[in-house]
Amino acid sequence: MTADLRRHPRVPLHATVPLAFSFVDAPTSVSSNRVGNGTIANLSVKGCQVHSDVPIQKGDHVSLRLHISHRDVPLSIEMATVRWTKAHAFGLEFISLWPADETVLREVIDMASTHRRTS
Questions:
Q1: Which of 10, 27, 84, 102 would be a feasible disulfide site paired with 91, CB 3.0-4.6 Å?
Q2: Measured on CA atoms in the order 15, 44, 25, 75, is the torsion positive or negative?
Q3: Distance of CA 23 to the CA centre of its chain
Q4: Residue from 10, 7, 1 nearest 91 by CA
């Protein structure tokens, strides 16, 4: 068994959370014309696991729009870095997001954690 070394534990999501992402040229934060879609399997305040058929490599930078069911406006992650890839999944570390989006992200994680404890 391998130890989970994350500082911020991820919570599994009980509903599919679709997302759209665009590749970003770091450090300029200029979006390229490469875009993709996927779903989030688990989430933390500092990252997530994404399932997608879009080819992506470790070290790529993306911006994200997460479509959370109870929100009219997508949650925005301005920049995230791909930390690992495996088949049709990859792990992202969130690098930059607005404080208001971080607050919403924490609320989503709290709701998922509460749901997990009561299930």
A1: 84
A2: positive
A3: 14
A4: 10
Q: Dihedral of CA 72/77/83/85: which sign?
A: positive
Q: Does 109 score more than 60 pLDDT? A: yes
Give the angle 101-105-108 at the CA atoms, nearest 5°.
140
Taking the C-alpha atoms of residue 112 and residue 79, their distance in angstroms, rounded to an integer, is 23
Q: Give the domains, in start order, of the chain with CATH numbers.
A: 11-118 (2.40.10.220)
Contact 32, 24 (CB under 8 A): yes
Check residues 104 and 7 and name the one with the higher pLDDT.
104
Query: Is the entire prediction scored with pTM above 0.90?
Result: no
